[in-house]
Structure formats: C-alpha cells, structure tokens
Amino acid sequence: MKLIDEFRDVELAKKLVSRIKQLSTRPTRLMEFCGGHTVSIMRNGIRQILPPTVEMLSGPGCPVCVTANADIDKAIALAHLPDVIITTFGDMMKVPGSYSSLQLARAGKADIRIVYSTQDALQIARDNPAQSVIFIGIGFETTAPTIAASILLAEREGIKNFYILCLSKLCPPIMKAILDLGELKLDGIVCPGHVSAIIGSHPYEFIPRDYGVACVVSGFESLDIMQSIAMLVEQIESDKPTVEIAYRRGVNPEGNKTALELMDSVFEVGSADWRGIGVVPASGLKLRKKFERFDAEQAFSITLEPVREAKGCICGDILRGMKTPLDCKLFRKVCSPEHPVGPCMVSSEGSCSAYYQYGTDYE
Question: What pTM did the predictor assign?
C-alpha cells in the first residue's frame, strides 16, 4: 500500500482500493480512453495498487498521437509554401511525419509558430495581413468550440488571411470503432472528463446498450480515477452496464449546450483518419460549406509524397490497446522524448511518454 501515500486523501484512497478488491471476483479489462488519465494512472502508480483481477489498458485518447502521418505531411507541405505562417500547439512540433516534422521544417526556414490558443493564431493573422496564417486544428470535442469561435470572429472582422487545417476528431465514434474491431474484450471504459464536459454523458449510452460494456466518466485526480474504477467494477460484477458520471463537478449528462451549438454552427460531421485504425466514417469534423473559404486544404495546392510509417514503431497498436510501450523494441533504446520515433513519445499525453517518465515495469 506504499503507493497510496502519494494520494492527497490517504484514507479515502485506501477505502477505494479495499472496495475494488472486495468487489472484483473475476478478470476485468478496463480501458482508460483519455491520455490525461493514462498520465495520472502512471504517475500515481494506480495500476500497481489494483488487484490482479483488474487490468487497465490505454486507449486512443491523445489527439496528437492519433493524428495520421498523412495529415502531418499535409501540415509540413503547407509550411513550405511561400508567404505562409503555420501556427500550432507545441506538442505537434516534434511529431514525425513520413519524411520530416514541423520542427525540422522550421529549422529549414519555414515560418512555424507555437501558439496556446486559436485566438493567438488569429492575432498573428491580424498582424501579418500580407501572409496566409494556417492553424493546425488538431483535437477532440474539447478544442473544437474554440476553433469554431475563431472562425466566426475572423468572418465577423473580415479577416481574409486566416485558415484552418481541420483535423478535429470525435470520441464516441472511435470508441465504437475500437469495439467493432473486436481485437479486445473490454468490460468497461473510463470515459474522458474534458471531452465529456462538452458533449455530456448521453453520447456514450450506445456502449452499454449495444456492446454490454460499462462506462464511467472520470475526472483526472487520483481519487477520481479510483472512484471510477470502483464504479466500473461494481457495474461489471452486477452485470448491469450503464453510463455513470464520477466527475459531477465538471460534467452533466447534457454537456455544454453553448459549446455544442457553437461547434454545430461551424462544423459538420465527416470521416477522419486515425493513426493505427485508418479512416473512420463520421468520426471527424469538417467545415460547413458556408465556411469553406477558411479550409486550408481547399485554399492551397500541395503535393504529397507517398505516406511512410516509421520502421519498428508500434504506436498504432498501442493506441488500440493491443500493446503497451514495453512491447516496443524501440522504447527507451532508440525512441525517447529527446529523439522520438513516434507520436506516443512526443505528446505529454502519449502512452510512451507516460511510461518513460513514470513507468517502473522496465526497471
């Protein structure tokens, strides 16, 4: 029980561990979907204090990690166009594409700037009217409303040089895709907290109904996750899978109506390309026809080389929960945060990064 001492509320943590051990009588396989949950689980040693009957797998809930090489290649190609400024979140800089990365492109004199919000990107467009400013729009439902807001503001102000490379993805459809693949027999899913703050818990109701898989929306504190695991195990042991919320301070069943309406006004649902999974119908967002002029893919002509995957990298298998970083022959030998081979080592929410920083299994 030594690891429990790291929890803020030691007594409650001990009670939760004891409850999980009392409840769990059969092998139970859970997937934490969100990369933020994976980091918290690894940092706090949660896997080590669970009973051997409870197995935790990491899922595809890291937006940087699931961005396909083909889409990274598009961003790099756009960066090499004349009079173009690329704006992006910092995590994307070191992610390898087929032949290069945004970081290498910037070293080669491409104008690529790290921003902390779409509003930063929009301000760069205001300040540089003679250049085209493209924001690399990765993320899930959490960031989509902010991208939508920037587009509406650019339209209202008549800003003509602002564009989005729209790579936003949706979580419930990829959960369905993972379940439909049939590679894993999952008993329960720890659903993402920040995404659920936007979409609510209702969109997950098909999972227990159609697949018999339990769902609990969790926050990111250690106790949040432990409480969610306890609730999942209780559902599974009673054979009553449903959708519950263990993060009431941040999530309600209906979600954030204002954010959802904002997204819907700018985006419509389309297909998206997921690393390790492929193109999944109705799992992404694309700009509505009214806002097509902001679409970087339509506004600029680029030539792409054939997509190439890094030899030996198993990020795709890790994102599907089929393998862990410990199964990768490159992990800690060739692939590290300083010299990442794949995106799961680059992103702060990537499984490989979390294992590298907090894992003890390889010691």
Answer: 0.93
